Amino acid sequence: MAVIGLALIAIPLAVEGNRVFGFYNFVRTLLLIGGVIVAFAGVGLAVRAYLTRTDNDLANVVGQHLSRYLGNEFWFIRNVSRRGLGYIDAVMIGPPGALVFRIVDLEGVYANERGNWLKQNRGGEWVPAKLNPTEEDIVDIKALREYLRSHNLPEVPVYGVVVFIKNPPLTQIMLKEPTVPAAHLNELRQVLQDNYLARDRIDPALARRIVNLIYET
After folding, report:
1. Bridge pairing between strands 158-164 and 86-94
2. CA–CA separation, 87 vs 65, rounded Å?
3. What is the arrangement of strands in the sheet containing 116-120, beginning at the earlier edge strand?
4. 3-state SS assignment for residue 176
5. Mind listing the pLDDT tens digit for each residue in 166-190?
6. Nearest one of 194, 182, 86, 103 to 142, comparing CA atoms
7. Which pTM does this prediction carry?
Protein backbone atom coordinates (compact mmCIF):
# COMPACT_ATOMS: atom_id res chain seq x y z
CA MET A 1 0.00 0.00 0.00
CA ALA A 2 2.78 2.41 0.91
CA VAL A 3 4.72 1.61 -2.27
CA ILE A 4 1.66 2.25 -4.44
CA GLY A 5 1.01 5.51 -2.58
CA LEU A 6 4.60 6.63 -3.15
CA ALA A 7 4.38 5.66 -6.83
CA LEU A 8 1.25 7.75 -7.30
CA ILE A 9 2.98 10.70 -5.66
CA ALA A 10 6.16 10.25 -7.74
CA ILE A 11 4.25 9.65 -10.99
CA PRO A 12 1.08 11.77 -10.79
CA LEU A 13 -1.67 10.59 -13.10
CA ALA A 14 -3.78 13.68 -12.48
CA VAL A 15 -2.72 17.32 -12.32
CA GLU A 16 -3.89 20.10 -10.10
CA GLY A 17 -6.92 21.79 -11.52
CA ASN A 18 -8.27 18.54 -12.89
CA ARG A 19 -11.70 17.82 -11.42
CA VAL A 20 -10.60 14.39 -10.18
CA PHE A 21 -7.34 15.61 -8.66
CA GLY A 22 -8.83 16.02 -5.18
CA PHE A 23 -10.07 12.43 -5.09
CA TYR A 24 -6.80 11.20 -6.62
CA ASN A 25 -4.73 13.04 -4.02
CA PHE A 26 -6.93 11.63 -1.22
CA VAL A 27 -6.47 8.07 -2.47
CA ARG A 28 -2.69 8.23 -2.76
CA THR A 29 -2.35 9.87 0.66
CA LEU A 30 -4.62 7.24 2.19
CA LEU A 31 -2.60 4.45 0.61
CA LEU A 32 0.66 5.90 1.91
CA ILE A 33 -0.55 6.42 5.47
CA GLY A 34 -2.42 3.11 5.54
CA GLY A 35 0.63 1.26 4.26
CA VAL A 36 2.83 2.75 6.97
CA ILE A 37 0.31 1.79 9.68
CA VAL A 38 0.03 -1.76 8.36
CA ALA A 39 3.82 -2.03 8.19
CA PHE A 40 4.22 -1.00 11.84
CA ALA A 41 1.45 -3.42 12.84
CA GLY A 42 3.26 -6.20 10.98
CA VAL A 43 6.51 -5.44 12.79
CA GLY A 44 4.67 -5.46 16.11
CA LEU A 45 3.08 -8.83 15.38
CA ALA A 46 6.44 -10.24 14.31
CA VAL A 47 8.07 -9.13 17.56
CA ARG A 48 5.17 -10.53 19.59
CA ALA A 49 5.37 -13.85 17.75
CA TYR A 50 9.11 -14.02 18.42
CA LEU A 51 8.75 -13.30 22.13
CA THR A 52 5.68 -15.47 22.76
CA ARG A 53 6.40 -19.05 23.80
CA THR A 54 4.64 -21.47 21.47
CA ASP A 55 5.47 -24.48 23.59
CA ASN A 56 6.54 -25.46 27.07
CA ASP A 57 9.90 -27.22 26.99
CA LEU A 58 9.52 -28.54 30.53
CA ALA A 59 6.13 -30.02 29.71
CA ASN A 60 7.67 -31.66 26.67
CA VAL A 61 10.22 -33.37 28.92
CA VAL A 62 7.43 -34.65 31.20
CA GLY A 63 5.36 -35.83 28.24
CA GLN A 64 8.29 -37.73 26.77
CA HIS A 65 8.94 -39.36 30.15
CA LEU A 66 5.33 -40.49 30.58
CA SER A 67 5.08 -41.76 26.99
CA ARG A 68 7.42 -44.61 27.98
CA TYR A 69 4.83 -45.96 30.41
CA LEU A 70 1.40 -44.92 29.17
CA GLY A 71 -0.51 -46.11 26.11
CA ASN A 72 -2.38 -44.40 23.29
CA GLU A 73 -5.49 -44.06 25.42
CA PHE A 74 -3.82 -41.05 27.08
CA TRP A 75 -3.50 -37.56 25.60
CA PHE A 76 -0.82 -35.24 26.95
CA ILE A 77 -1.56 -31.62 26.00
CA ARG A 78 1.22 -29.08 26.59
CA ASN A 79 1.05 -25.32 26.88
CA VAL A 80 -2.71 -25.08 27.39
CA SER A 81 -3.90 -21.50 26.94
CA ARG A 82 -7.56 -20.75 26.32
CA ARG A 83 -10.01 -18.00 27.10
CA GLY A 84 -12.02 -19.02 30.12
CA LEU A 85 -9.35 -21.50 31.16
CA GLY A 86 -6.15 -19.50 31.43
CA TYR A 87 -2.66 -20.96 31.10
CA ILE A 88 -1.77 -24.46 32.29
CA ASP A 89 1.63 -26.12 31.90
CA ALA A 90 0.08 -29.38 30.73
CA VAL A 91 -3.08 -31.48 31.01
CA MET A 92 -3.26 -35.25 30.60
CA ILE A 93 -6.56 -36.83 29.62
CA GLY A 94 -7.23 -40.55 29.83
CA PRO A 95 -9.47 -43.24 31.34
CA PRO A 96 -8.67 -42.08 34.92
CA GLY A 97 -9.91 -38.54 34.13
CA ALA A 98 -8.00 -35.26 33.77
CA LEU A 99 -4.64 -34.50 35.37
CA VAL A 100 -3.37 -30.92 35.69
CA PHE A 101 0.41 -30.44 35.84
CA ARG A 102 2.39 -27.70 37.53
CA ILE A 103 5.99 -28.19 36.41
CA VAL A 104 8.88 -26.70 38.41
CA ASP A 105 12.48 -26.28 37.27
CA LEU A 106 14.20 -25.17 40.48
CA GLU A 107 17.17 -26.34 42.52
CA GLY A 108 17.48 -26.54 46.28
CA VAL A 109 15.92 -28.26 49.27
CA TYR A 110 12.15 -27.84 49.66
CA ALA A 111 9.60 -28.98 52.21
CA ASN A 112 5.86 -29.23 51.54
CA GLU A 113 3.29 -29.67 54.31
CA ARG A 114 -0.27 -29.66 53.03
CA GLY A 115 -0.46 -26.51 50.92
CA ASN A 116 2.64 -24.74 52.26
CA TRP A 117 6.14 -24.73 50.80
CA LEU A 118 9.42 -23.88 52.52
CA LYS A 119 12.95 -23.68 51.17
CA GLN A 120 16.18 -24.25 53.05
CA ASN A 121 18.52 -21.27 52.75
CA ARG A 122 22.32 -21.36 52.75
CA GLY A 123 22.37 -21.20 56.54
CA GLY A 124 20.20 -24.28 56.80
CA GLU A 125 17.16 -22.31 57.95
CA TRP A 126 13.70 -22.89 56.56
CA VAL A 127 12.10 -19.86 54.93
CA PRO A 128 8.89 -19.50 52.90
CA ALA A 129 9.49 -20.46 49.28
CA LYS A 130 9.14 -17.70 46.72
CA LEU A 131 6.58 -19.73 44.82
CA ASN A 132 3.84 -22.09 45.87
CA PRO A 133 3.30 -24.67 43.12
CA THR A 134 0.50 -26.31 45.11
CA GLU A 135 -1.59 -23.13 45.17
CA GLU A 136 -0.86 -22.53 41.49
CA ASP A 137 -1.91 -26.06 40.59
CA ILE A 138 -5.11 -25.76 42.64
CA VAL A 139 -6.00 -22.60 40.73
CA ASP A 140 -5.50 -24.49 37.45
CA ILE A 141 -7.50 -27.49 38.69
CA LYS A 142 -10.44 -25.26 39.63
CA ALA A 143 -10.20 -23.46 36.29
CA LEU A 144 -10.36 -26.73 34.35
CA ARG A 145 -13.26 -28.01 36.44
CA GLU A 146 -15.19 -24.80 35.84
CA TYR A 147 -14.32 -24.89 32.13
CA LEU A 148 -15.63 -28.44 31.80
CA ARG A 149 -18.71 -27.59 33.89
CA SER A 150 -19.48 -24.67 31.57
CA HIS A 151 -19.47 -27.20 28.70
CA ASN A 152 -21.91 -29.52 30.47
CA LEU A 153 -19.24 -31.89 31.81
CA PRO A 154 -19.50 -31.45 35.59
CA GLU A 155 -18.88 -35.13 36.32
CA VAL A 156 -15.28 -35.27 35.00
CA PRO A 157 -12.77 -36.06 37.79
CA VAL A 158 -9.88 -33.57 37.72
CA TYR A 159 -6.65 -34.30 39.58
CA GLY A 160 -3.41 -32.36 39.97
CA VAL A 161 0.30 -33.00 40.42
CA VAL A 162 3.41 -30.89 40.99
CA VAL A 163 6.46 -32.16 39.11
CA PHE A 164 10.05 -31.17 39.86
CA ILE A 165 12.13 -31.67 36.74
CA LYS A 166 15.51 -31.85 38.48
CA ASN A 167 16.15 -34.98 40.52
CA PRO A 168 18.30 -35.30 43.68
CA PRO A 169 20.81 -34.12 44.64
CA LEU A 170 20.12 -30.92 42.66
CA THR A 171 16.59 -30.71 44.00
CA GLN A 172 15.29 -32.39 47.12
CA ILE A 173 11.70 -32.33 48.35
CA MET A 174 10.26 -33.47 51.67
CA LEU A 175 6.53 -34.04 51.82
CA LYS A 176 4.05 -34.24 54.68
CA GLU A 177 0.39 -34.79 53.82
CA PRO A 178 0.59 -32.76 50.60
CA THR A 179 -2.67 -31.21 49.41
CA VAL A 180 -1.56 -31.92 45.84
CA PRO A 181 0.80 -34.83 45.12
CA ALA A 182 4.36 -33.75 44.31
CA ALA A 183 7.19 -35.77 42.85
CA HIS A 184 10.54 -35.69 41.12
CA LEU A 185 10.30 -36.61 37.47
CA ASN A 186 11.87 -40.03 38.02
CA GLU A 187 9.26 -40.83 40.72
CA LEU A 188 6.25 -39.47 38.85
CA ARG A 189 4.87 -42.77 37.60
CA GLN A 190 4.93 -44.35 41.06
CA VAL A 191 3.25 -41.31 42.66
CA LEU A 192 0.49 -41.24 40.04
CA GLN A 193 -0.24 -44.93 40.54
CA ASP A 194 -1.32 -44.16 44.11
CA ASN A 195 -3.98 -41.63 43.02
CA TYR A 196 -4.66 -40.60 39.44
CA LEU A 197 -3.74 -43.93 37.83
CA ALA A 198 -5.38 -46.01 40.57
CA ARG A 199 -8.44 -46.82 38.41
CA ASP A 200 -10.37 -45.87 35.27
CA ARG A 201 -13.17 -43.38 35.80
CA ILE A 202 -14.37 -42.17 32.37
CA ASP A 203 -14.99 -43.89 29.05
CA PRO A 204 -12.93 -43.23 25.88
CA ALA A 205 -15.71 -41.19 24.25
CA LEU A 206 -15.82 -38.74 27.15
CA ALA A 207 -12.03 -38.52 27.24
CA ARG A 208 -12.00 -37.66 23.54
CA ARG A 209 -14.67 -35.01 24.07
CA ILE A 210 -12.55 -33.36 26.77
CA VAL A 211 -9.52 -33.35 24.47
CA ASN A 212 -11.57 -31.70 21.73
CA LEU A 213 -12.79 -29.02 24.13
CA ILE A 214 -9.22 -28.14 25.13
CA TYR A 215 -7.96 -28.19 21.55
CA GLU A 216 -10.86 -26.35 19.91
CA THR A 217 -10.24 -22.84 18.58
Report:
1. unpaired
2. 22
3. 126-128, 116-120, 108-113, 171-176
4. strand
5. 999 999 999 999 999 999 999 999 9
6. 86
7. 0.74
